[in-house]
Amino acid sequence: MSDRAEAAVRVIEGSLRKRGRLRDSHITLAHGSGGKAMRDLIEDVFVGSFDNPALAALEDQAVVALSELASHGDRLAFTTDTFVVNPLFFPGGDIGTLAVAGTVNDLAVSGAKPLFLSCGIVMEEGLPVEALRRVVASMKRTAEQAGVYIVTGDTKVVERGAADKLFINTAGIGVVPEGISISARNARPGDAVIVSGYLGDHGTAILVARNELALETQIASDCQPLNGLVETMLRACPDLHCLRDATRGGVATVLNEFAQSSGVTIRVREAALPLRQEVKGACEILGLDPLYLANEGKLVAVVPAEAAQRVLAAMRAHPAGEHAAVIGEVTGEQAGVVVLQTVFGGERIIDMLVGEQLPRIC
Amino acid sequence: MSDRAEAAVRVIEGSLRKRGRLRDSHITLAHGSGGKAMRDLIEDVFVGSFDNPALAALEDQAVVALSELASHGDRLAFTTDTFVVNPLFFPGGDIGTLAVAGTVNDLAVSGAKPLFLSCGIVMEEGLPVEALRRVVASMKRTAEQAGVYIVTGDTKVVERGAADKLFINTAGIGVVPEGISISARNARPGDAVIVSGYLGDHGTAILVARNELALETQIASDCQPLNGLVETMLRACPDLHCLRDATRGGVATVLNEFAQSSGVTIRVREAALPLRQEVKGACEILGLDPLYLANEGKLVAVVPAEAAQRVLAAMRAHPAGEHAAVIGEVTGEQAGVVVLQTVFGGERIIDMLVGEQLPRIC
């Protein structure tokens, strides 16, 4: 074949390829090479799913007008999170759901409207392409639910044994509306502390999925985007003081961060913690403290006392907040202390998590 | 000890801790727990190195005024890249240099001024803390060189054997100045094709570092930020047509992307390719094609013919472009074709990389 004829055949294949499917059943090192196999993978699995103009251009970066961003507020929020959860699939979600919801939530708790995500994937050679497709479909679904676009990405493949199946990093960009100022430093004595629902569902679901529990439970991960809930809360009270999603380290770690950053004491009533019976049971059997269990769709808010009932009512009217509860309040006793008032009437200090409770929970 | 006394001791430790050093010699699963050990690691190794106000606040997201971004241009550029290079340390750089320079370069080739990076790290249990410190020091140095800030991050630890030592994802934000419009779709017949210097240094350096070459060479990776060079080029010619750094897949892959996206032929003269003797030698011995070797501090530019000598002169006056050369030109013969005119007077089609040349090159 002459060079010309060869080239013509290739170009026709090229344009067909965009509409076709990747034929490989498993990921190989070639899918991370920067060459043809990688381009096929990206065009089929990613561009085909995340369909949006920025990604389809396949430049090495996505570009968006600052004027468009400015229509949402006056400050850019930027965050990142890597997901290494084991197993990849669990009741209530998978690593893809987690990778989108996690970064959306890190943006949302700054008060930002999440807009764009990046997606960096590390795959182990031999990963079934069908597993990747399932994960990407979850990312797409969760991104739609949150109203964000995945606009730029990168894929790497490492040899068998150099990574455990699949890791996903997402970074996110959002815009904070004017006048919103949420920070871990803003808790004031008198403020109310609210959680948005049942605690510990994600941590328990992962334990069950790993068969580390000798229990039959129906617990599903609470993995979900929280930006809609946060918008509702901000409409009820634009002056939310602190907001953070309670992921690794659980509610206890978030409360300690608030108490330390704001120089206050936070008092929590054990009886007020929203806990499912199954989670309570699992914690009792395994000696785990639900305050340290990971959540992937729950937030902790510190709000002015006068707004507490208004915010709570707004949260309960939202699907992501129906089981929201006031769990305690802020006092000025001491800087950096979290105190639990137990159901037996005693008190104990709730410290930050020491050591590791459950590795690879997210 | 009463609760009060215990709390007071902890708070004093807390404030000392920020100025102290992490005492562990190796990374453990606790350093990824979301709890105290992770906070110690982040405060000591990361915040201590990347020192900037956004990161020091230790919120889950960095926030920057849109008005500040608007002072640099009218469009936001957003990109991401994950680095899994093996080995972590090699002549000329390490995974940290690469992680900063790589993302800076992906922004720079859109014409954007790179401003902020995120950093998502996956560590294998048992990684020596000193290795992490060295990598973080390289990230800091490269970020300073490029004039960017690392403003937000995340660390995960996986159990021994679930990852190979250390993977780093960086996402980056930059701003594109008004009037700049660089795209792989902009190559026009008559345009000149320029590369910014010697090709294949990074790929060869990694091969040598892996002891896969039975050669004694002094080749160091070309790993470096290119945003300064791009600024110089844009001053010489604001109308640069295409620009891309030639990483995985090498110059051949970039030229194919330009040819396909622009619907043109690109003709390259083999004799004009800037190649070090050592790289040429290694390629001949191993049967590698230098056009496919990875670079980590080289770019390919397509510029209007009338501007070619002006751009070339500007590049050669910059340390990152002293060996820049015009290597070919764009023609309208056929869409999506790259042709090499060999030193023997023949012609051959240069396709995108098929299969995998060197896994984990970046």
Automatic annotation (TrEMBL), chains A, B:
One Pfam short name: AIRS
Coiled coil: none
GO process annotations (BP): protein maturation
The PurM-like N-terminal domain, residue ranges: 59-176
Segments forming domain PurM-like C-terminal: 188-339
Family: Belongs to the HypE family.
Entry protein name: Hydrogenase expression/formation protein HypE
Species name: Pelomicrobium methylotrophicum
